[in-house]
Amino acid sequence: MxxxxxDKQYIWHPYTQMHTAADAIGIQRGKGTMLYGEDGKEYIDxxxxxxxxxxxxxxxxxxxxxARQARELEQVIxxxxxxxxxxxxxxxxxxxxPDNQARIFYSDNGSTAVEAALKMALQYFDNKGxxxxxxxxxxxxxxxxxxxxxxxxxxxxxxxxxxxxxxDVAFVDTPTPGNEETCLQQFKxxxxxxxxxxxxxxxLVLGSAGMLMYRPDILDQLIGxxxxxxxxxxxxxxxxxFGRTGKMFACDYLNHKPxxxxxxxxxxxxxxxxxxxxxTQKIYEAFLSADKMKMLFHGHSYTANPLAxxxxxxxxxxxxxxxxxxxxxxxxxxxxxxAESIAGNPKAGNVRQTGTIxxxxxxxxxxxxxxxxxxxxxxxxxxxxGIVLRPLGNTVYVLPPYCITETELQxxxxxxxxxLAKF
Length: 423
Ligand SMILES: Cc1ncc(COP(=O)(O)O)c(C=O)c1O
Known about the structure:
Blueprint: H1 3-10, E1 27-31, E2 34-37, E3 42-45, H2 48-51, H3 60-72, H4 84-93, E4 101-107, H5 110-127, E5 134-138, H6 147-151, E6 170-172, H7 180-191, E7 196-201, E8 205-206, E9 212-213, H8 216-228, E10 232-236, E11 260-263, E12 275-280, H9 281-285, H10 306-321, H11 324-342, E13 348-354, E14 357-362, H12 373-384, E15 387-388, E16 395-398, H13 406-422
Parallel strand pairs: 3-15, 5-6, 5-7, 7-10, 10-11
Antiparallel strand pairs: 1-2, 2-3, 4-12, 8-9, 11-12, 13-14, 14-16
Bound molecules: pyridoxal-5'-phosphate.
């Protein structure tokens, strides 16, 4: 039996209406940007497999680093013990981060990196004996699927069945072009409550909301206002980190520095799940005490898994070895030309780009919901054309691994243009 047939009997897939979804495509192997199906079909992975892959599938250098680590030490409890890949990764990562980031806390995915950040912020004030309990977040935010991360995310289709169980958040309008002023007013009002512990944001691009983009200067202003009141600013770089926005981190576009940062997805080059929450020394020190009740009450069984850390170290080395910054620049330039070429097309609304992410909204008669049927028709068309593109509602976006060749990228653009002509 094929992978697809066996899958159908036992597997429950994420974000999938199993009753109506097409059968899952069985993938046998990957190489570079390409995914190879068991039925002999080939696909260009133009969404980096849910935004995780950086240097290409089955990258031999990262694969070898994981294999080497697996023969040495596969896992060790991370309370009371440490290991080389965890320490090495912290040493390598910190110099890339804003210089106020001092401590690395490990977990094992993006949602848990956010959970740890929220708990750090809340317990920071608790440890100091200050009563601050509320977070500010953008109205369209997406920070993950666990209850804390859902709470600071948009009240929308993803969270609807759980609304009554989510904690209250001070939501402000996302400062997309035209909304900056209302965002700012709402933000100042929220800060006025005096109860704000933290401000959590996806810097520059809100991914799951539909690649909503906004300017760095407005974010700088918000962080400045928040930090005047000692509100902890949490940059969720789970999606934007590791080059997606053109610079290593989206926060590199800012003058103000966040207090806490969250990373996952691309951190291991897309090989193994890993979460990182970094913090300032000041936040870390608020947990130091003779009183055990002041320790950070958070941890996961697979915290700092050595294989994941070894993959992340190898991925950072690949950035140097393969001059990935140059590849990113190439994608940015190609995206620019593509964006210009479709900007006049009436079917392509709000064409926008931040770094290696290019997006537009497919103009349709239907309402612009994530559950829109144009999304399914476009998805099927792209798959039939051998391209993995996964529109968010009617938002089509391209987010390729950095190893994508110019020929592959042009093929992706061509197929998108064909979809604009067809639908
Ligand atoms: C900005 C952001 N934060 C957090 C998450 C959650 O990460 P994970 O899916 O690894 O739990 C995502 C996932 O898409 C994300 O885009």
